[in-house]
Amino acid sequence: MINRLILWLALAGMILTLHLWIQKSRGFDQGCLGLATHADVVIEKGCREVSELPGGHLFGVSNAAWGYAFYFTVALLAFGKIVSAPIWARRMHAASEVLTAVAFLYSLWLVYQMAAAGTWCVLCLVSAGFVTLLVAAHAAVRSRGGFQPVEESARGRELGLAVGGLFAMSGVLVGVVLFVNRLGTRPLEQGTTGAEVQRLVGRALPLYIDGDRLQEMRACRFDQSGSVLDMVNFVGRDTPFVGDARALRVVLFVDPNCPHCAVYFPEFMQAAESLKERAGFTVVPLMLWETSRRQVAALKLAEGSGKYFELWRAMFKQQAGPRKGMTTEQIAVLFRELGLDATNLEQRLAALGPSVDRARAAAQAGGIELVPAVFIGGRQVWLGNESPECLAKLVDRVAAEVAAKK
Predict the structure, then answer these.
(1) Of 133, 249, 276, 310, which is most buried, counting CB atoms within 10 Å of its CB?
(2) Residues 6+ apart with CB under 8 A from 213
(3) Whole-number average pLDDT of the chain
């Protein structure tokens, strides 16, 4: 009975690690589990981050490949224990015990690596769970007096159940490969294929079309899949704007610890300066990670101080990396450097905690799954269209639409 469980767990582990390997080769363009659409994939997804950690490979080979080899070997040994002579069955079980123990220790090390990096891969955690169950199954065999070879009278039944399990797992594997990973039907714009297509087009077009003309022709559009976002939940009376917020509002959502946001922030402020006669521009802190809670609250404190955008620049300048965050003492130093009130800062930041949580809940309800995210008149700008040139085109487009309705 327990040997059956070991076999089925190993077969399930083979499917899991194969799925992980396929998603890794695609750059996790369908999210961590492979169930998201391309447009829903969130930047900085855990599985992608974990795959890039030093512990994501062993001797230059991906952990997904090692995992598949482990589960395949354990499944092979479990199947062999059914059909082999007693002496060989016991040896196979002993080998399975050793392999599982080594895999369990390695899984613990990988979980430690994820915890140290502050990022988590769901598929990796599920695999660690499978290994833990395999350890428990082998321990259960020992607690019952050790491995007992299959009796001759029960061998046919155990063999039939093993083949049945193999058949069922094969069906699941085909379903995962065809319907979840969508092999053979992958859109050309996704994953590494999409990157190759973009590079090819990017190299070919300038050979035939002038570069300035290409910039003029560049498509700038909104995300048509989302609804119009009500900014009442994010923009208040004290929210500072660059430009005329009465004409049109352009809102940038960012997390103060997001590296992509730090890179894009100067571009957005450049667009704000050049377009401030046509619209009002502001930056809204959105807590992507719990470690950003203090900084988001600090930015809310600075809204009516006249130093709001300066505080954004200072935080991005001192950014330590994704999910690192700043201590209250570090924030107090920035406040004093900018001439802001740093007294009782810990209590003041804590008091804004509910407001920070409400804003995050409203953002999730509004479909904001990705930062940096730019909204013009409540409509989200399509990913990759946030350049100053595109923002200018989209601001003019929305302004013309509003004028036409009057």
Answers:
(1) 249
(2) none
(3) 80
Residue 163 pLDDT class (50, 70, 90 cuts): low
What is the share, in percent, of the chain residues with pLDDT greater than 90? 23
Identify which of 230, 248, 274 has the alpha carbon closest to the alpha carbon of residue 402.
Answer: 248
Chain center to CA of 406: 43
Write down the pTM of the prediction.
Answer: 0.51
Beta-carbon contacts of 70 under 8 Å, excluding residues fewer than 6 positions away, are 13, 99, 103
**Per-residue b or e along 308-320, where b marks 16 or more CB atoms closer than 10 Å to that residue's CB:** bbbbbebbbeebe
Contact 191, 29 (CB under 8 A): yes
Q: Which amino acid is at 201?
A: V
Structure tokens at 85: 């002579």
Q: What are phi and psi of 118, to 5 degrees?
A: 70, 25
Q: Which amino acid is at 176?
A: V
**Which tokens go with 398?**
């929305």
Give the SS3 label for residue 226.
coil
Q: Tell me the C-alpha to C-alpha distance, in Å, between residue 64 and each of 20, 22, 102, 353.
A: 6, 9, 16, 40
Q: Could you tell me how far CA 323 lies from the centroid of its own chain? A: 13
Give yes or no for a contact between 334 and 318, defined as CB atoms under 8 angstroms apart: yes
Element (H, E) at 380: strand 379-380
| Rounded distance between C-alpha atoms, residue 345 and residue 295, angstroms | 11
Half-sphere exposure for 134 (CA within 13 Å, toward CB): 32
Q: How far apart are CA 43 and CA 10, in angstroms?
A: 32
- Enclosing H/E stretch for 137: helix 122-143
